[in-house]
Amino acid sequence: LGFCHQLYPSAATQHLTHNNANVTHSASWSNRQAKMGVTNKKTLTKTRRKTRDVDQIKADMRSPRHLQIFKNTKAKEDLPGLGQHYCVECAKWFETEVSLVGHRRGKPHKRRVKQLKEEPYTQKDAEAAVGLRTDNKGVNKDGPEKALDQEIEMET
């Protein structure tokens, strides 16, 4: 048991199941969440900071108009640095130019740039992985029986 349980042995524990693994949290954990205004763990997880998806960022990079439409949906007063310092690859606003430059030198930014260089998977890729594609290149027009006869003749 943890340190908290050694001090307060009568403290009730709450067992939560997440991804088929039992996780034990003390009752004080859920009390802290209730004080913050969120009592449902699913809602708490679902409403964390939402970032833009990779395909949306790629659309921003391809089309400046798409990026401008996204930027216009945000109120400038609510953004860090009044919305002046924006990293397109990471879809993040920064307070100052110095913090933006520091971010661009960092590992998370470089990881995102590398991720954006990869082409996204398409429906064709998914079908090819399952084996549903139609590959007619290199198929003998005479049929498989004729091809077998030609192979047998070559061997003799």
Quick structural overview:
This protein has 156 residues and is mainly alpha-helical.
Classify the oligomer. single chain
Helix content: 40-55%
Order of SSEs, N→C?
Answer: HEEHHHHEEHHHH
How many strand elements?
Answer: 4
CATH class of one domain: Alpha Beta
Poorly predicted runs of 5 or more residues = 11-23
β content, as a range? 5-15%
Gross morphology is elongated
How far from one another are the termini? Answer: 79 Å
Report mean pLDDT, rounded to a whole number: 74
Order of strands across the main sheet: 1-2
What is the CATH topology of one domain? Answer: Double Stranded RNA Binding Domain
Structural class of the secondary structure composition?
Answer: mainly alpha
Biggest sheet overview? 2 strands, antiparallel
Instruction: Give me the CATH architecture of one domain, please.
Output: 2-Layer Sandwich
Radius of gyration: 28 Å
Number of distinct helices: 9
Subcellular location: Cytoplasm; Nucleus
Family: Belongs to the ZNF593/BUD20 C2H2-type zinc-finger protein family.
Keywords: Cytoplasm, Metal-binding, Nucleus, Ribosome biogenesis, Zinc, Zinc-finger
GO molecular function: nucleic acid binding; ribonucleoprotein complex binding; zinc ion binding
Question: Care to describe what's here?
Answer:
With 156 residues, the chain is mainly α. Among the domains are: 42 residues, no CATH class; 64 residues, Double Stranded RNA Binding Domain (2-Layer Sandwich). It contains 9 helices and 4 strands. Strand 3 and strand 4 form a beta hairpin. It is elongated and about 80 Å long. Belongs to the ZNF593/BUD20 C2H2-type zinc-finger protein family.
